[in-house]
DNA sequence: AACGCATCCAACCGCCGAACT
DNA sequence: TAGTTCGGCGGTTGGATGCGT
């Protein structure tokens, strides 16, 4: 019973890839496509596991990978998306951040962005300001830091929104085609077909850290207009507060049992995203604190 | 120059669901 | 249907490199 093993794993090579191996893999895939990763190493003449070949190709050799450093816009987008998607780096890389691998995004998050959030007083897991009552987090939460945290949240929110709006209007048809073909579209299709709540969809079930109830509260906090106008009354996911500034969240907005939700609604939610962020909290604040604001002090 | 520490990132590991026999 | 492998994902590791003392 069961499949036969593809090869003797003991004879497989591990560790860094040599340029020769890279060349063999690239040539083979260019000629034949990767096909079955399981049989690729044998057919290509590599002493590697199919898994290793797939990783090498996906994370390094693929021709559409950007090798340049992350831009500030990309970094901000990653932070923003992390608030919505959690650690679903693959979804970020495939859907939103073109040319970046999930591994790159993962590394960026773990080495830079997590620390950046901590430094401005935000919990990287929840994206909420760290409270003094939380004994596991030692970051200071002085009034100045809290202002900085909210300031940074609002700034990231606005930048991500502008970025997405611009890409949305640049290629509307392409955007919605991608949206429909993505997990989001699949969720809509399943929703209509099975009359189930999207909270039970594989998209959300597979998310380890951002299941239905853990969409970024900071996002909502920093755009109260949305929290008030777009918050979905939720029977399945008690704490779900979608901030529908992005397609993913737009889909999450159907987290209620309203199975008649449609892409029209999603589009409306997207387009209804308020232009004005509530920056009133910046009033009555000593302007001096912005001299060391995060935007001037990128880590 | 030598050392220790911090950071980066490619690659591996472990797990899970799908696919296969 | 059961047992096994495959493919894919998120988490983690460890060697290479940079930087400060």
From TrEMBL:
Pfam family, one: Myb_DNA-binding
Keyword DNA-binding annotated: yes
Biased composition (Low complexity): 131-144
Listed PROSITE patterns: HTH_MYB (PS51294), MYB_LIKE (PS50090)
Main localization of the protein described in the UniProt heading: nucleus
CDD domains given in the database record: SANT
Region (Disordered): 124-146
UniProtKB keywords: DNA-binding, Nucleus
Domain of life (superkingdom): Eukaryota
The protein's name: Uncharacterized protein
Natural source organism: Hibiscus sabdariffa
